[in-house]
């Protein structure tokens, strides 16, 4: 059984790695895990020795097939726990991430499979992230970043990239929940802002915020 630290690292590599096989950079991993770059480098060498990742000095790491399987197992646990807490205990979407971080290493795959069945085999967690299936497959996202839309475009919020409690509380205050539908009124790259309408309420967001929202 993999240790808590190993599970956290393979999950972070999976979530941090770029598209098209780009490695997860050491600096980004250090930021995501809250440790020093030196600590990350040491752990990446260990993962490489155990066959979970391929470490390239000054570039970062890519998961092997074995590492990807483990990362998706951890993500499956995490995302199903989040949804279970929301649906059964009525926790808010900004409360469940940290709880799931603590619980994801302690539950068995059997319990997770039972939770999956109890919830009706859901496709997404409370933040819109796809939930890996028991067979190790995971659906891709078809969403676009809100920041890329143009005036007149209609949209529906599908997924939130930043799942920090502070950011999710901000979105709740702004009425930007999953499933919220609206349209773009203006997009001003020179000012770094985008103005949207949700219901009958117009809201101006920074491009930094809008880049963290995926829409369809």
Task: Give a written overview of the molecule.
- Helices cover 42% and strands 19% of the residues.
- The protein is globular and about 55 Å long.
- Strand 5 (181-188) and strand 6 form a beta hairpin.
- The longest helix has 25 residues, at 65-89.
- The protein has eight helices and eight strands, in the order H-H-H-E-E-H-H-H-E-E-H-E-E-E-H-E.
- By secondary structure, it is of the alpha+beta class.
- It has a six-stranded antiparallel β-sheet with strand order 3-8-4-5-6-7. The protein has a two-stranded antiparallel sheet with strand order 1-2.
- Which strand order does the major sheet show? 3-8-4-5-6-7
Low-confidence stretches: none
- How many β-strand runs? 8
- Strand-residue fraction? 15-25%
Q: Largest sheet at a glance?
A: 6 strands, antiparallel
Mean pLDDT value: 93
Secondary structure topology:
Elements: H1 4-16, H2 26-33, H3 37-49, E1 53-56, E2 60-63, H4 65-89, H5 96-103, H6 109-118, E3 144-145, E4 154-160, H7 165-173, E5 181-188, E6 193-198, E7 201-206, H8 207-210, E8 213-215
Antiparallel strand pairs: 1-2, 3-8, 4-5, 4-8, 5-6, 6-7
Helix pairs in contact: 1-2, 1-4, 2-3, 4-5, 4-6
């Amino acid at each position: 059984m993999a240790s808590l630290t190993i599970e956290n690292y393979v999950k972070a590599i999976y979530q941090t790695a770029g598209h098209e096989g780009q490695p997860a950079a050491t600096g980004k991993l250090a930021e995501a895990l809250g440790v020093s770059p030196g600590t990350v480098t040491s752990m990446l060498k260990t993962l490489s020795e155990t066959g979970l990742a391929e470490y390239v000095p000054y570039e970062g790491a890519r998961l092997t097939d074995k590492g990807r399987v483990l990362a998706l197992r951890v993500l499956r646990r995490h995302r199903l726990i989040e949804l279970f807490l929301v649906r059964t205990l009525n926790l808010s979407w900004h409360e469940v991430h940290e709880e799931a971080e603590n619980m994801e290493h302690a539950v068995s795959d059997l319990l997770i499979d039972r939770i999956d069945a109890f919830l009706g085999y859901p496709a997404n967690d409370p933040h819109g992230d796809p939930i890996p299936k028991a067979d190790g497959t995971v659906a891709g996202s078809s969403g676009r970043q809100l920041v890329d839309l143009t005036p007149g475009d209609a949209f529906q919020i599908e997924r939130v990239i930043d799942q920090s409690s502070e950011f999710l509380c901000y979105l709740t205050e702004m009425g930007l929940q999953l499933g919220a539908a609206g349209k773009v009124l203006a997009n001003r790259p020179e000012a770094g802002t985008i103005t949207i309408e949700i219901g009958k309420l117009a809201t101006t967001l920074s491009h930094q915020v809008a880049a963290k929202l995926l829409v369809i």
